[in-house]
Amino acid sequence: MSPGGTRARRTGAPKRTIWPAAGVQEPAEDPAIPAPGGEPTSEPTGAPTADLSARKLGLHGVGPEAKATLTAAGDTGVHRTGEQATLNTVPGHRDGYATLCPGATLYSALPEIRRAAGASVYAH
Hints:
two-stranded antiparallel ribbon; two-stranded antiparallel sheet; 4 strands
């Protein structure tokens, strides 16, 4: 766990048009969203997370409410090597890895975060 809570993403620059850190394909660098609301007893991070999601995806013209089909680069506990998975472009780690990350509170807020990100001034 990071000092501010859990991290929903790995750190790095947005080099891809999707968010692969949900478990399939392992690029050297990918977008990151710190998720301090990921603790089971915390409130979701709301608008700041939605705006940041929209901004990072918008750099590549990808919608926060879109889905992407990826191929697993390795066995993640959810997807086997070579298996294709269709994931939201704003996913939780558990969508691709055998984990409970980002926690029940934030995970249940992801549909609203996607919707808010789609309506954000930063969405393209």
